[in-house]
Amino acid sequence: MIVFFRKLIYFLFFLPTLLFAQVHQKTLDNGLKIFVKEDHRSPVVVSQVWYRAGSIDEVNGKTGVAHVLEHMMFKGTKTTKPGQFSEVIAAAGGRENAFTGADYTAYFQTLEKSKLPIAMKMESDRMQNLLIKKEEFAKEINVVMEERRWRTDDKPTSQVNELMQSLAFVSHPYGRPIVGWMNDLENMSHEDALEWYENWYSPNNAILVVAGDVKPEEIFALAEKYYGPIPSKTIKERKPQIEAEQMGVRRAEVKAPSKLSYLQMAYKVPALDKDLTKNSTDVYALEVLAGILSNTSASRLNQSLVNDQGLALGAGASYAMITRGGMSLFEFYATPSEGASVIDVEDAIKKEVEKIIQSGVTDDELNRIKTSVIASKVYQQDSVFYQAMQIGQLETIGYPYTLMDSYVENVKKVTSAQIQAVASKYFVDERLTVVTLDPQPVDPNSKPKGKPHVH
């Protein structure tokens, strides 16, 4: 414990230089936004390109296409062969990959700083010159289906989560799985992927973030050289997507081979409004509440359900305060102990919530989570990759990157009364969805349906 606080004091002393280091920005004539954050502690640079295109932008019948296109971005351009992007970055001593979310798709490389032009040249090439060949697509769509089997079909808790999302969000696109429904993947064509690329992959729908041992003006010059000539496109109008009003508790059950049962509960709650003054009090109170319930081994759910009552092998809560879709879920999840039912665990979670509504939280709990939040944010800044990711995620979703500078102060302002208020306001049956896992016998001879993937 003494060692921890010594480290915390050390990092807090340097907080201004790490957490609030200046971010330099520029927008090219074609609309590409560039953000540069200097960190000269090691000769490493992280380059990330973020596209404002995720599963939230998909339409029924083509779910998963954002993720499929992510895979196809590694399958060659007019001047490169399939797989060559990864080979060149590896030969330069770098690492690269990509990820698709509901709100965005991002591509990144980590390299020694002198190798950055290589990454920029290749990344800008596939922004405008990607080839989506029918034969390459036919191979890669099978890889994506394998990934879905591996991540979802083979994992009962993932099946519970997928059903939770689709049941909680009936009309909002957050109800669709990012990886896509299997039927949509089976019927997807290379024309669907090409349409997605042509609709969304454009400099005026993208953000370039570079962090590390770099100088802003040098990065702006490189970006102008490689990305500047790429023409902008007319981006499709995004229609408002509003979730239908929920009238009561929604419940469902998944029957799947498993040794243990599982419970997932979710209340619909708001995400932080793009106008940061509108609902920030509620959102930061929910953020702190998630930490009090689940952040450490001393959290309420772990102490009550696991240690004191022995009802669960594990229990937690989570909340995403920033989203592009304007909505979020405050989720509870637990694995009941042997002899305890999902109903027992659900009742126990609701009792913990009711305690908070009636009595609030203690000063010790507030101080503990606030100290933890501050330490976590500082430690995260020790990663060049995370510094870049914070900027890219915030700006792509639609928030200013400066939000991260005010995060700690907003968390520190949260009071017990505010936490009571949001728990009372949002943790009601009209916002609740519950999905449980009913474990079925496990065949010891069964083999996984899918296998891991690279991209």
What key phrases describe this protein's structure?
455 residues, alpha+beta, 6-stranded mixed β-sheet, 5-stranded mixed β-sheet
Outline the structure in words.
With 455 residues, the protein is of the alpha+beta class. Helices cover 44% and strands 18% of the residues. It has 17 helices and eleven strands. The strands form two sheets. A six-stranded mixed sheet has the order 1-2-6-3-5-4, with helices on both faces. Strands 7-11-8-10-9 form a five-stranded mixed sheet, with helices on both faces. Strand 9 and strand 10 form a beta hairpin. Helix 3 crosses helix 9, helix 12 packs across helix 13 and helix 13 crosses helix 17. The chain is globular.
Give the class from helix and strand content and strand pairing. Answer: alpha+beta
Secondary-structure element string: HHEEEHHEEHHHHHEHEEHHEEHHHHHE
Mean pLDDT: 92
Strand order of the largest sheet: 1-2-6-3-5-4
Describe how the helices and strands are arranged.
Elements: H1 2-13, H2 15-19, E1 23-27, E2 33-38, E3 44-51, H3 65-72, H4 84-91, E4 95-100, E5 105-112, H5 116-128, H6 134-153, H7 156-168, H8 182-186, H9 190-200, E6 206-212, H10 216-226, E7 250-257, E8 262-270, H11 280-294, H12 300-308, E9 312-319, E10 327-336, H13 342-359, H14 363-381, H15 384-397, H16 403-412, H17 416-426, E11 432-440
Parallel strand pairs: 2-6, 7-11
Antiparallel strand pairs: 1-2, 3-5, 3-6, 4-5, 8-10, 8-11, 9-10
Helix pairs in contact: 3-6, 3-9, 11-17, 12-13, 13-17
